[in-house]
Amino acid sequence: MKQVFLVGTMILLGLTVKAQITINANDLASAGDTVRYSVTGSVLNTNQAGPNQTWDFSNLIPLTQDLQSFYGPNQLPFTFRLQFGNMTYGFPESLLPNLGNMGPANMLSDAYTFVKKSPTSYVYLGRGASVQGIPLALVYSPKDTLYKFPLTYADTFSGSFFGSAGFAGLGALSQTGNRTSVVDGWGTLKTPFGIFDCIRIKSIVTEIDSITFGATSIPLPNNRTEYRWLAKNQKIPVLEVVEPASLLGARTVRYKDTFRPEVFVNQANFTATPKPVSAGDTLFLTNRSFGTPKSFLWEINAPISQYEFVGGTNQNSANPKVIFSQAGNFDIKLTVTYSGGKDDTLRTNAVQVLPSSTGISDKIFESKFKLYPNPTTGKLFLDLKIGQNTTYQIFDLTGKLVQQGVVSAQENPQAIDIIGLFKGCYLFKLDQLPAQSSCKFVIE
After folding, report:
1. Which domains, and CATH codes, for the chain?
2. Contacts for 161 with CB less than 8 Å, ≥ 6 apart
3. pTM for this prediction
4. HSE-up (13 A, CA, CB side) for residue 378
5. Other CB atoms closer than 10 Å to residue 112's CB: what's the count?
6. Buried b (16+ CB within 10 A) or exposed e, 177-209
7. CA dihedral defined by 177, 45, 22, 71, rounded to 10 degrees?
């Protein structure tokens, strides 16, 4: 009888040890991975914690579905590779404050979170986005540690994070916060995707996102509680719940899932502002498509001589900028490509272009300039045809004026001496030009 009892006890202990899994770095995504997830509006009980839990969420109803891609450094903008040189990958993100609601249209786009994954930790290095076409990096120091490996039941850790960035004429952005985490449960999780042995990590995040314009600073509290159920070899949390501390925030629930064509709907959508726009002024085309398209194609039913993509954008940019040289009504078509297919939207008379109030017409682009090579290793040349001398200025990404000089009308192209500048991304601006008067360049 004792032998039977001993064997039974060993079997029970074996089952218990098996259920209490340990999560390591190789259980999470690597560069190049793409994972599908669904978003649901179903209400979940997050109060279950402790050992040997059964979380039965098998009745979740998906509302939308998208793909999460993890891009290696070589797939990301060059400036971000400089700012986050030790990153493992970056993934598209929407956690940055929506600067577009605070300033000019299309101010912020293409946001990413950058991650360093090592055998001992999974750390957010910071975030980045394009601000008016210029890459802007918000580098955390200290970093935001999401996980510490090996990760198992009852583990606890905490830490603070801070990052700030500013840009000439567009204000500044900062994020400061603290994350306190505990692995507060283990057991079995059931979702529409399957049944998994999981651990659950609960993180309480207190965060303030601040936007500064001139002397005005606008704090945006972003306090929240995050729950993540992690399973072996699943790359992302099998289930993730973010509960805002304020009733004004939006609760987010998403889970790893299989392809569901009834909710994965390709939907191309965009806005064009301002309405109307004058010839010579910038039209902002903003992608509003469902999910995260992999590529874009913008088509305008006008002769190419009557418009030009500016600000470093083109017809394949997510949020391009366009200047028209002639008045008229023009159709615009956006085609987006997802991993699961394509969709397009054609809008008749999407933009009304009024005659220029400054008298600029079809000669608007005669004063455009070329700055090359870009990126450069130390030599910079300006190709510009102008009727009189003008001045140029060079700003770094903090908005600091680092160099200025005179552009001669008699010399074309002419060399710009940048020997005293450090490696990085800069903004080059010209005075007294009616059209494209600035562009970014990179010193390698």
Report:
1. 18-256 (no CATH), 270-354 (2.60.40.10), 366-443 (2.60.40.3080)
2. 124, 140, 142, 143, 144, 175, 176, 177, 178, 179
3. 0.62
4. 2
5. 24
6. bebebbbbbbbebbbbbeebebbbbbbebebeb
7. -60
pLDDT at residue 209, rounded to an integer = 86
What is the model's pLDDT at position 68? 85
Rounded to whole angstroms, the Cα distance separating 72 from 432 reads 41
Instruction: Identify which of 280, 367, 371 has the alpha carbon closest to the alpha carbon of residue 322.
Output: 280
> Span 101-116, mean pLDDT?
65
Backbone angles phi, psi at 52, to 5 degrees: 55, 45
85 CB-near residues (< 8 Å, 6+ apart): none
SS3 per-residue string spanning 40-77:
ECCCCCCCCCEEEEEEECCCCCEEEEEEEECECHHHCC
| Contact between residue 111 and residue 138 where contact means Cβ atoms under 8 Å apart | no
* 3 state DSSP class of 315: coil
Integer Cα distance of 288 and 347 in angstroms: 14
The answer to whether 101 and 171 have CB atoms below 8 angstroms apart is no
Phi, psi (rounded to 5 degrees) for 10: -65, -40
pLDDT at 9 over 60: no
**Which pairing describes strands 414-417 and 424-430: parallel, antiparallel, or unpaired?**
unpaired
18 φ/ψ angles, rounded to the nearest 5 degrees: -65, -40
Tokens encoding 436: 């494209």
Cα dihedral 436, 295, 39, 159 sign: negative
Residue with tokens 């710009």: 416
Q: Could you give phi then psi for residue 34, rounded to 5 degrees?
A: -135, 130
Average pLDDT over residues 181-207: 97
Residues 301, 279: Cα–Cα separation, whole Å? 16
Instruction: Indicate whether 259 pLDDT > 50.
Output: yes
Distance CA 267, CA 64 (A): 11
* Residue-wise pLDDT tens digits, 147-171: 999 999 999 999 999 998 876 556 7
Q: Alpha carbon of 421 to those of 307, 373, 390, 424: distances in Å?
A: 34, 15, 22, 9
Amino acid 302: pLDDT: 85
For residue range 348-359, list pLDDT tens digits in order: 888 988 886 544
Count the residues in the chain: 444
Residues 164 and 172: their CA atoms lie apart, in Å, by 7
Segment (H or E) for 116: strand 108-117
Can you tell me the mean pLDDT for 65-71?
85
The yes-or-no verdict on residue 430 having pLDDT over 80 is no
Question: Distance (Å, rounded) from C-alpha 293 to C-alpha 342?
Answer: 9
